[in-house]
Amino acid sequence: MISYKPFYETLFRRNFTEYQLIHHHGVSANTLHRIKKGEAITTKTIDTLCDILNCEVQDIILHI
Questions:
Q1: pLDDT score at 8
Q2: CA separation for the pair 57, 29 (Å, rounded)
Q3: Among residues 12, 10, 9, 32, which one has the least CA distance to residue 21?
Q4: Beta carbons within 10 angstroms of residue 60's beta carbon
Q5: Beta-carbon contacts of residue 43 (< 8 Å; ≥ 6 apart)
Q6: Pairing between strand 2-3 and 62-63?
Q7: CA 41 to CA 45: how far, in whole Å?
Q8: Phi first, then psi: what are they for 14, rounded to 5°?
Q9: Which part of the chain is the HTH cro/C1-type domain (predicted)?
Q10: Phi and psi based region of residue 15 (left: phi greater than 0; alpha: psi -120 to 50; beta: remaining)
Q11: Is 0.85 topped by the overall pTM?
Q12: What is the pLDDT of residues 15-49, one digit of tens each?
């Protein structure tokens, strides 16, 4: 199972909001909805989030 808990912790540490991701960085609201629901996102999306947040993959997802 994949957990996105690290994603929200990273957002908080980096002082980012979902609003900023959507309106300033072009992340789709659907992507954030999928993350909230624990649904799959692409590796390309994970790469994009890592670039935006200047973090590593483990700061976005956790395999349980």
A1: 96
A2: 20
A3: 32
A4: 24
A5: none
A6: antiparallel
A7: 6
A8: -90, 0
A9: 26-60
A10: left
A11: yes
A12: 999 999 999 999 999 999 999 999 999 999 999 99
CA dist 59 → 14, 30, 36 (Å):
11, 20, 15
Residue 17 has what pLDDT? 96
**In b/e form, how buried is each residue of 3-29, taking b as 16+ CB within 10 angstroms?**
ebebbeebbeeeebebeebeeeeebee
Beta strand spans in the chain (E): 2-3, 62-63
Instruction: Provide the token pair at 58.
Output: 């483990």
